[in-house]
């Protein structure tokens, strides 16, 4: 059994207030949870209107599945939400 811990630094565009950011964050996290069956939560950059930090974790029998999951999540964030994933940091153990 393999476990992944993924940290994403996401750049936000057109956010005028932290209330607007909260709306984007809640929608994004709920979507990731439902679509990919992962644990997702907001992490760093809580006071920033320009950046968002999200932590994602998941379990699988296959290491390749988890690596593919990272790509799918990043593509989904960039294509469906118009956000930019600036940095990814992951650990598989």
TrEMBL record:
User: Which SUPFAM superfamilies does the entry link to?
Assistant: Hypothetical protein TT1725 (SSF103007)
What is the name attached to this protein's record? DUF503 domain-containing protein
Q: Which organism is it from?
A: Petrotoga mobilis (strain DSM 10674 / SJ95)
